Amino acid sequence: MRFEELLEKKEAKQVYLIKQLIIAGGQMNVHEIRKVLELTKKSIDNYIEELIEDFKPYGKCCQLTYDGATITFSKTPDFSIEEFEKALYLNSPKYQILLALLEEKEISPVRLSQELKISESSLSRKIRDLNKILKEFDLRIWQGKLMGEESQIRYFYFQLLWYLKQGYAQISARESHIIENIERGLNLEFMSVAKQRVLLWLRVTKKRMTIPDPQFKQFKEKFEPYKRDPLYLKLLPIIRRSFSFYAVELKEEEIMLHFVFLTGMSVLSQKGFHAYSLQRSKMTPTAWCDSIILETILRIYGPKNIRKELEETCYYHLSQIHLRLYFFVGDVEAYDRNNIWQLEETLSTSNIQSHVNQLLELSAKELQPQSNEQNSLWAMTAIKYLSVLSIIDIRVNREVRVGIYLQLDELFKEATKNMLTLQLNSLNGVIVESFDETRHYDLVITNTELDLDTKIYRITELGSAYDLKEIKKLIRQA
């Protein structure tokens, strides 16, 4: 799910345009905009005029200028475009419908359409649109209620509210007491961000735990291998005691959900997870997958190249990834995936994407045989694997040494060497320097014939994109 899907078509295109402007460096011409938005010149002019008006309340903090041919975005250093976007999302009728379903459990079309100041037919259309969004979470709105597995409903609302920065302000004494009970009972200390996550989870739980006959069938079946987990057994009396003041019978599934949340939703610190990992069974589906993926990564980079602390960091992140992949479907996409992949291609010296695909195949085999690549959780898992590999790629002790040997006039020689150095030094693990015959190089870049016992690349045209692409290819193979 992308947040733009909560907006009307025009607003979604405007937000998309702003993001593409930022990715492009703050400026685009009208031909690029037409390609991105797939609109006529007249429609683009109207979109941009409205955007300029929408930005006026922000004054000099955020501005758009348009001369009919080029649009330029600018902002002050302390302003984030997120402020503008978030205001759109929070005021959108689709978000308000979702919020009403959380607060009231069941919505009255007549009353809600009056509150949102829209017609009942418009409300029905927006609910149909929401059902398209909710489908990847295995949820749907039916007869005024949100239908689906309770675990998926809680997970969806937590993700939605967390990324919109809603629902974890002004902690009460009772909420603080519950969090302290969990910390003390599990011998953990939550960081401030982790406490905010727990607080939001508690509030979503409170709103949903009184729902009559919640569905837990699939979740309960998946949880079966975790019933003997030491952390879960510790959590049982803590949650029962902490929620004793609610006038409802606490179902065992509620405690199961708390366990999955604590261990899989970025609540445990790496130190806390390490202590837990020494006790947990290695034969649960996710723990087994953690081990298989970690072993694969170690083989990719070579066990000797990855220090123990880096291995533990990798193991910690994998545990979060696999718990979500095993227990849930769907995700909230807060980042532009295509931009992340393009950035990886410019910075990485190794073919990380092929390694990511390898890890995805393995985790699909272990956790989700029917994984759908169009599902956002699956797509975001690829980005998370990319992030784990990027951390290793940067920190692993692997250097590619490149020497530059040019026979040119001194001016062109210096300028070309500086250009190549600037472009190649940005690659992870690459060291670029002037050629020194006393040193060993993995690659030598030159414009003349050289008799060396190493890889050589002869440039064809100064500053050509082709040469740079081929040089990067050789570096990846080094």
TrEMBL record:
UniProt entry tagged with the keyword S-adenosyl-L-methionine: no
InterPro entries: BglG_antiterminators (IPR050661), Mga_HTH (IPR007737), WH-like_DNA-bd_sf (IPR036388)
Domain Mga helix-turn-helix positions: 78-160
Keyword Nuclease: no
Keywords: Transcription, Transcription regulation
Protein name: Putative transcriptional regulator
Organism per entry: Tetragenococcus halophilus subsp. halophilus
